[in-house]
Amino acid sequence: MNQTYRTEIRKGNTMYDDQPQAETKQAASAGIPVYKRMLDLFEAEGIKTLFGIPDPNFVHLFLEAETRGWTVVSSHHEAATGHMAAAAARITGKPSVCIATLGPGMANAMPAIQCAKVENDPVIFIGGQRARITERRVRRGRIQFVRQEPMIEDSVKFSSSIEYADQVDEIVREAIRVCMSGTPGPAYIEYPAHVILEEVPNTPILPPSRYRLTMQGADGDRIAEAAKIIAEAKKPVLLVGHGVHTSKSGAAVKELADLMQCPVIQTSGGTSFIEGLEDRTFPYGFSEVSIDAVVESDCCVALATELGEPSHYGRWRHWVDNEANRKWIYVQQDPTAIGVNRPIDVPLVGDVRAVVPQLSRALKELGGRKPSEELSAYIQRDAQQLVELAEEAAGKPDGSESLMHTSQFVTEATKAFPKDGIMIRDGGATVIFQWTYSQCKPKDVIWNQNYGHIGTGLPYATGAMLADRAQTGKSRPGMLLTSDSSFLFHIGELEVAVRENLPLVCVVGVDFQWGLEVGVYKRTFGQGTRETGTHWSDKVRFDKIAEGFGCYGEFVSKAADIGPAIARAYASGKVGVIHVPIDPKANSEEMPNYSEFRTWYAEGTQ
Ligand SMILES: Cc1ncc(C[n+]2csc(CCOP(=O)(O)OP(=O)(O)O)c2C)c(N)n1
Ligand SMILES: [Mg+2]
Q: Which keywords annotate this record (predicted)?
């Protein structure tokens, strides 16, 4: 940018004026620096948290954000920072922001960028960069410099750079617009050093509804068509995907479910429970009732789900029987997803937040539906199955004579899950045990499903809890139920939880191995081979490591002591870490419904 142009802008007198007249008229005579303008633009979206490790590119932004009352959090690794921001987006239903220093910081953030892309998290990654004059010179030996956009652009939905100060509005808006449109996902904004303190006119900030689609409803004729199909269906089901929870549409879906009087089937990505629907919500494939409900259904209303591999694309395994008699209604924000994984009878393209209430209104006008005869039977059977699973687990080794069985670990820990808590999952085999044995029905579950990225648990826990607190002003308890190897990835982030006084308890199932992979060896070669690369030292004590971070630590070897230890950890007022030894053999060999899990990797059967 040449000096004349810069001066023009400082005067509030842009050369290329792309603002409507009404807005420029009010333009303040004083300019505003780019870093403050960015915060204004994010605030218009209700964003109040900022994650990252600051450096010269970001100290102005950080100081200003904290001065404005934002929650500003630094982590101990940029990948963790990115995962924190992803969890923040999920728990708030808004885009989130995360920064990283130029060069190694952005490289470290790559796992989180790619993860956000596959997990559909609308995170805006802002990368520091040298001033363009340095970048474009022909030089050797520049410090902390690498070209970043080529590394990142294939892993985000939108990538750009604020080359000129007056691009700040258009680039931040486009990043948010693209992040939140269709299937949500991450964006990258490069923020080179030369623009940070440049000034732009301090024009009024546009509200989201004026620069992007918000609350977009579906076509009215199609809504009427869908409502008629639902009203006439004998055995409909609601298939509730991840997007229902990340868009905070639970209450709207509850209203629709009440009108439909039908079972609610959770996809593997959408394992949170909607308040008031807990008794009629069945995890797809992992509860017997879910399978019966799916097989018998003559209408599936799929909400904000990709209909991905774990849902068998909605067309094989449990869906095969009765396919000919089943109508599909698909609420999806991305028009290009319609008909991809399976044919759809009535596509309802729009924001689930708007489309579900539209559907409810139309169904109400038709008088709603009577409960399917099977519904109360399903509810009873599922409750009974949960009791039986807890009883069956209670018959397994409890740690008093031999090492604890993972089913005991899961049932006892989930029974102690706090009311209104946030559940975060991480790990290999122990997570598979959770799908079957979990005894709690949390309203918020955060875990990494599509990308399958272990190690995300602690960053997800801290990010979700911090953003939730920033948004609501209340601190909800969090429980991280995790396996040991996964917990070690980002264990340094315990410090963040301690620093921020988060009411977080981490319950760690310890078998000193990559248990799921031990199982793979056994299934591939049988018992007794070396299980190269899957076992690690049995000297690690997570309760002691935790104490070193200023946490409350306990070592619990008996199943009956897990619940009381969790209660003591919450009561301690500190972050809790509970080390629970579990049986490596059972953990790697006795995963329940493993055959169901294997069908997620559907090579050759697609
Ligand atoms: C980042 C990443 N690395 C590796 C894997 C492959 N993987 C999936 S589960 C697992 C073992 C996890 O071990 P642990 O956390 O101890 O859980 P356990 O199976 O022992 O319960 C591995 C290596 C992955 N999914 N993600
Ligand atoms: Mg393990």
A: Thiamine pyrophosphate
CA–centroid distance, residue 78 to ligand 2 (Å): 24
Is residue 433 domain-shared with residue 340, that is, in the same domain? no
- Ligand 1 atom nearest to 516, measured from its CA: 19
Angle formed by the axes of helices 374-394 and 429-437, nearest 10°? 130
Flag whether pLDDT at 148 surpasses 80.
Answer: yes
Together in a domain, 300 and 207: no
Domains in the chain: how many in total? 3
Give the Å distance between the CA of 173 and the centre of ligand 1: 37
In this structure, the residues whose C-beta lies within 6 A of any atom of ligand 1 are: 427-430, 452-455, 483-486, 511, 513-517, 587
My answer on whether 153 and 268 are in the same domain is no
Tell me which of 434, 516, 520, 594 to substitute to probe ligand 1's pocket, judged by most ligand atoms within 8 Å of the beta carbon: 516
Q: How far apart are CA 479 and CA 419, in angstroms?
A: 11
Q: What is the CATH number of the domain that holds 538?
A: 3.40.50.970
Q: What is the pLDDT of residues 324-383, one digit of tens each?
A: 999 999 999 999 999 999 999 999 999 999 999 999 999 999 998 888 788 999 999 999
Same domain, 290 and 197: no
Which tens digits make up the pLDDT trace of 157-214?
A: 999 999 999 999 999 999 999 999 999 999 999 999 999 999 999 999 999 999 999 9
Task: Compute the distance from residue 535 Cα to the ligand 2 centre, in Å.
Answer: 9
Angle at 469 between CA 464 and CA 470, to 5 degrees: 100
Question: Taking the model in full, what pTM does it have?
Answer: 0.94
- Return the residue matching tokens 């363009």: 132
Ligand 1, atom 8, residue with closest C-alpha: 428
* Residue from 118, 434, 454, 532 whose mutation best tests the ligand 1 pocket (most atoms within 8 A of CB): 454
Does residue 302 contact residue 241 with C-beta atoms inside 8 Å?
Answer: yes
